[in-house]
Amino acid sequence: MKKAEVGNVIEFKEGLQGVVEKVNENSVIVDLTYMNNFRDLELDQRTVINHKNYKIVKDAAY
Fold first, then answer.
1. What is the spatial distance between Cα 38 and Cα 21, in angstroms, rounded to a whole number?
2. How far apart are the C-alpha atoms of 33 and 36, rounded to whole Å?
3. Which residues is 53 bridged to in the sheet?
4. Contact criterion met (CB below 8 Å) for 32 and 43
5. Which of 2, 9, 33, 46 is the most exposed place for a label (fewest CB within 10 A)?
6. How confident is the model over 5-50, as pLDDT tens digits?
7. What are the beta bridge partners of residue 44?
8. Structural domain span for residue 14
């Protein structure tokens, strides 16, 4: 399995998406404000996702 890199968009937990801000040994920190409906979902701005629990949907735009 390929680990995400900073700037990648990942999908996890039944369709939630976010931008990877930091890559740790076992997880990534994700900014959820990427989603258009972020405010409607009443979620925290950031969350931590284990590498086993996401898939990369878009590579970093560098």
1. 17
2. 7
3. none
4. yes
5. 2
6. 999 999 999 899 999 999 999 999 999 999 999 999 999 999 999 9
7. none
8. 9-58
Mean pLDDT of 48-57: 97
Burial of 34 (0-12, 13-18, 19+ CB in 10 A): middle
The answer, yes or no, to whether residue 61 has pLDDT greater than 90, is no
Split into its structural domains, the chain has a count of: 1
pLDDT for 26: 96
Distance in angstroms (rounded) separating the CA atoms of residues 32 and 52: 18
Structural domain contains residue 2: no
Residue 3 lies in a domain: no
